Each structure stands twice: as structure tokens, then as C-alpha cells.
Amino acid sequence: MALEHAILVSLAEKTASGYDLARRFDASIGHFWKASHQQIYKVLGRMESDKWVESHLVAQDNRPDKKVYSITGEGRDELMRWSSVPTPIEPLRSEFAVKLRGTQFGDRDAVLADVRVRRAAHEAQIAYYEASAQRHYPDPSSLREDELGAYLVLRGGILAEHTGMAWCDEILQAFEAER
Amino acid sequence: MALEHAILVSLAEKTASGYDLARRFDASIGHFWKASHQQIYKVLGRMESDKWVESHLVAQDNRPDKKVYSITGEGRDELMRWSSVPTPIEPLRSEFAVKLRGTQFGDRDAVLADVRVRRAAHEAQIAYYEASAQRHYPDPSSLREDELGAYLVLRGGILAEHTGMAWCDEILQAFEAER
DNA sequence: GCCGTCTACGCAACTAGTTGCATAGCAACG
DNA sequence: CGTTGCTATGCAACTAGTTGCGTAGACGGC
């Protein structure tokens, strides 16, 4: 579904090999849409048959050849078409929420330890995002048009992580109050 | 992965047929873990082979027979074991974020229309959750132990929806400022 | 009397994504 | 000189979840 389009967006910004894409999906775009390299290669193959992308082999010194993909006109059309269709609202899906709900049937202390770990992870992620924002968008009041999307996505990540942390705090407080 | 455990939690609270579970997954638990009835029946079958649940047929008047499932001792053990293993931190996965990031390659106005739709959906969900909180937990300062988990999950939902709405507002503002 | 909806269960075919493995040359470390 | 790690691509087998369909009786509305 969206992996195709995430790849199209990424290739529209800059051509890349499957390997390059896999690295991008470990960073920037990947913070909001994960993909393994296996999945990327699989989907790239399909996208090439669909003529959304095209590839050419590039020989390199001291490194394996690579297949560099670029987006086609059809790929850009698809991106346009896709952007004009409303995105289905994806329901939350949290294994942790299930566990929290079932705390009474489980190991309370383990769940609380888990909450603390998650809180720390949110905190670290905020620091990472903030640093990234500082570095790439030091002045958010004057963004180039081509930066706006990525900046807003980063903002979404920051907001979500703050919320995650606030939730953890609320959980810890509630359990401490109960004890 | 988690569907099994969501079902175990649900059955630990109260025995149910596959159909009952499907309805619960359309409401309460389902707000944080969706599942179709097909998937539920499939997983219930596996769980019965694994001895985590057991079923017996119940005949009904004017209605089809139903298979009522209940959790077994082994099922409760599994729930305990699962709760003591840290939950892997699930990365966000948002098709909408991908689209937002690619706005420059798409239909800007359509994306903004989408944002407005999503904002309204968040607003509606907040109203729904708040009503649910009011009804089930009118006094959050004194919750029974068996209510705490479900309450905190609901709180998580409320926090997440508020964040979703705030993000939409930020996006709308940024695009309006740009124009 | 037909149509839609609800209860209740399930199979079959498909798609998306994960896990494990394979290949292969080069560079850096000890 | 062996091990680890990076670049680079991909297949095979599996799991989870979706979509579409089928069955079947009861109830209510028009």
C-alpha cells in the first residue's frame, strides 16, 4: 500500500539504489514507515514492472555494482493520483495497550518496568528529533516549500513522542497512587 | 502476536463466543487492536489447539448455536509469561505522514482537505472517548484495581487523539502561513 | 412476499511483511 | 591471517492479516 508510495516520494526527491532506500528507511522516512531491505527489493521489482520506476546498473570502484532507480512520469502521475485520494484513517494498534489493559492478569511490576523503559525510549527519541529539527530546520518560520512536508512530519513525530511520554507518566502515577 | 493475547485478556475478563469477541474488537479493546471476525476465528482455532482456551457449544432459542470460549489455566500462564516480557516498541507507521512528506509531488489542496477530515475524525473520537470515560469511570481518583488498566488505555487514546488534532492544526497553520 | 439486518460460523485466495539464508568483494582491526 | 563489518542484491519459507464468498435461520419493515 504505502510502501510503494513512500518509495516514490523518496525517489522523487532523489534517485537511489535499493540499498540507499533501505538506509533512508532506517532513518528519515523510516521513522514513520519502516521497511526491511527484502521488502524494498521485492516492491521495487513490482514497481518496475508497473513502470512507476526504472533502473540502470552503475558500476563502482571497489564496490559491488548497484541498480539505481529513478521515478518515471507514470510514477509521478501515480503519486499525484494517490495524494488526491483521502488516506484511510489508520486505527491505533498497540500491543502495549493490550498489555496495560490486562495488567491485572499479569506481572504488575514487569509491566511497570516496561513503562519505564518506554518512557526512556520516548525521551531519547524526542532528543533525537529535536536535534534533527535544529540541524535541518533551524528557522521554522521560513521554510522552503520543499522542506515543509518533511518538517511537519518531524513535528508530528515530536508531538507523538511527547504524548507517549506523558502517557507513561500518567500510568506510573496511577500505579503509584494505587499502591 | 498480540491478537492472541488481546483475546486472552478479553476472555480472562469474561467468556465469549467468536462472534462476541468480534463485537468487543469493534469497540473497547478494538480501539487499540483491530481484528476482523475471520482473523478471530482463525486465531481461536489455533489457540484451542495450543490449549490456551477451550470451548463448548451452547444451543440458543431462535438463534444459531454458539461456541463459547473460556481461558484455561495454560492460557492464564501464557498471559502471565507474556506480561513479564518487555513489549517491543512498535514504530509509528503512518501512511498519512508519507503523504504529508510528499505533498510537493502531489495535490496540495487534496492533502489539506484530507487534514481537515482527519482533524474532524480526531475530534469525534475524543468526544466518544470522553463520553465513555464519563460513563465508565466518573471518578478516576478512585478506580477499582480491575478498572485501572482499561481506564489508562482509554486515557492513552484520549491523549493520542488530542495530539492528532494538534498536529492537524499545526499542519493547517503552516500551510496557511505559506500561502 | 421480498429486502435488509442481525446472529453465528467458517473457508479460500490473496497481499504485506518477517525471518532466515546466500553470495561476494573490499576494508579495517588485531 | 582470520574475523568483523560494510556495500549490494536477492530468494525461499513463513506468518499475519485482508477481501471475498458461503451458509442459515430469525426478525422487522414496506
Describe the protein.
The structure is a homodimer of 179-residue chains. The mean pLDDT of chain A is 94. In chain A, helix 6 (108-136) packs antiparallel against helix 7 (145-178). Helices cover 64% and strands 11% of the residues of chain A. Chain A is mostly helical and 179 residues long. In chain A, strands 1-3-2 form a three-stranded antiparallel β-sheet. Chain A has helices spanning 2-13, 18-24, 37-49, 73-84, 95-101, 108-136, 145-178, and strands at residues 16-17, 53-60, 63-71.
Question: What characteristics describe this protein?
Answer:
three-stranded antiparallel sheet; 179 residues; homodimer; mainly alpha; DNA-binding
SSE topology string of chain A: HEHHEEHHHH
Oligomer: homodimer
**Global outline of chain A:** elongated
SS element count, helices of chain A: 7
Largest sheet of chain A: 3 strands, antiparallel
- What separation lies between the terminal Cα atoms of chain A? 46 Å
Mean pLDDT of chain A: 94
Structural class of chain A: mainly alpha
Percent range of helical residues of chain A: 55-70%
State the low-pLDDT regions of chain A, or none.
Answer: none
How many β strands of chain A by DSSP? 3
Protein chains sharing the most extensive interface = A-B, 72 and 72 residues
Widest β-sheet, arrangement of strands of chain A: 1-3-2
β-strand percent of chain A reads: 5-15%
Radius of gyration of chain A: 21 Å
Topology overview:
The structure is a homodimer of 179-residue chains.
Chain A: H1 2-13, E1 16-17, H2 18-24, H3 37-49, E2 53-60, E3 63-71, H4 73-84, H5 95-101, H6 108-136, H7 145-178
Antiparallel strand pairs in A: 1-3, 2-3
Helix pairs in contact in A: 1-4, 2-3, 6-7
The structure holds a DNA duplex (30 and 30 nucleotides).
